[in-house]
Write a structure and sequence with these properties.
With about 350 residues, this protein is an alpha+beta fold. Helix content is about 55%, strand content about 15%. It has ten helices and nine strands. A six-stranded mixed barrel has the order 2-3-7-4-6-5.
Length: about 350
């Protein structure tokens, strides 16, 4: 039998048993959709987790001074030149500041006095020496509009508040009620601490070790960072991946079992039709190919249906697996269905036509 003729006969064979064909289609549609939804949801969770742990506040190493002079401006310059350090904040002192209009009676927020030059407000204005910018939370706490006004710190120094911090700046992640000011001192003798944001892919522990070595007095400094972050991130991703693979295998195994059962049921229901074909000279291999291809066509329709449903649902959730994975899942489900249908097709092919077609 020619391939095109075999394909046509397989389609006709499937249409003769609509209940079994629909059951087979629904089985593959459910399996395919479940696998894609499982993977798509797990991928969205993993991506969200990865984005969270890549935020600057989770990848910051802080070098703190335990005694005056342990960290100087030259140390901050050396740290900023380290490979993997995308940004650093050299803090001369950490103090508090309040709205000068309240004459010292209003609420106060943390003020980071830094060496940094080139810091910008949300409007793009540079923050000059003796000026500060702040987060929206700090502005509200101080009773300012858009962070504009005058502040006074606990040492009695006045600072010109020039606006809100650039939300894309790493310093904006220091905390909710945060004010960052640029020191007016030309050459401050020492720093209180240096915070460095480490790029994704660089080890926090190694960066912390190098920062300690670069200090003026390494014995009088300490580092602070989330040393378990990379371990936890790796473990979470491995757990998600392992759970996803195990669930997908279980779904495929269940689908294979159902397809095998349905193929036996369809072969039993089509015994007389198969027997007539055998009596007319059809080879056993042709019968096996006919029944297997018939099941495969039903499976392919179910896979397309399941894939479409899964992609629509995932699109609404703003998450979808890679196109390569979607195609691979569809092909794998069809292969599983085809292989699982072979035993039933072989059982139908070995039946003797004389025993089935004989008239009592």
């Amino acid at each position: 039998m020619r391939p095109l003729q075999l394909l046509t006969e397989s389609a006709r064979q499937a249409s003769r048993r609509p209940i079994g064909t629909v059951a087979l289609m629904l089985t593959l549609a459910t399996s395919t959709a479940s696998i894609l939804l499982l993977v798509g949801t797990a991928k969205a969770t993993a991506d969200k987790f990865a984005v969270e742990v890549e935020q600057p506040q989770f990848r910051t190493v802080t070098l703190r001074s335990k005694s005056p002079g342990a960290i100087d401006p030259a140390t901050a310059a050396r740290i900023s030149a380290l490979g993997g350090v995308s940004d650093e904040l050299a803090v001369v002192s950490l103090t508090t500041a309040s709205n000068a209009a309240f004459a010292g009676g209003g609420p106060s927020v943390g003020l980071y006095e830094t060496l940094q030059r080139g810091l910008l407000t949300s409007s793009g204005r540079p923050i000059n020496a003796g000026e500060v910018a702040m987060t929206p939370t700090a502005s509200a706490q101080l009773g300012l509009v858009n962070g504009v006004g005058t502040l006074v710190d606990e040492r009695g120094r006045q600072w010109a508040a020039v606006g809100l911090l650039d939300p894309d700046s790493d310093v904006a992640s220091l905390g909710g009620g945060t004010v960052v000011g640029v020191t007016s001192e030309r050459s401050p003798p020492a720093l209180e601490y240096v915070s460095a944001v480490v790029d994704v892919g660089h080890d926090l522990r190694t960066t912390a070790l190098w920062m300690t070595r670069l200090a003026t007095d390494p014995t009088q400094v300490e580092t602070d960072f989330n040393g378990q972050l990379d371990v936890v991130a790796g473990s979470a991703k491995s757990a998600l991946s392992g759970s996803r693979r195990a669930s997908a295998r279980a779904m495929l195994a269940a689908a294979a079992g159902v397809v095998a059962f349905l193929s036996f049921a369809l072969a039993a229901a089509q015994r007389r039709d198969v027997a007539r074909r055998r009596a007319l000279g059809a080879a056993r291999s042709t019968i096996v190919g006919l029944l297997t291809l018939s099941a495969s066509l039903s499976a392919a329709t179910g896979v397309l249906l399941g894939t479409t449903v899964a992609l629509v649902v995932l699109h609404q959730r703003a998450s979808s697996p890679d196109a390569t994975f979607v195609c691979a899942t569809g092909v794998l489900c069809m292969l599983v269905a085809a292989v699982a249908s072979i035993p039933g097709a072989m059982l139908g092919a070995v039946t003797e036509p004389a025993r089935i077609l004989r008239v009592p």
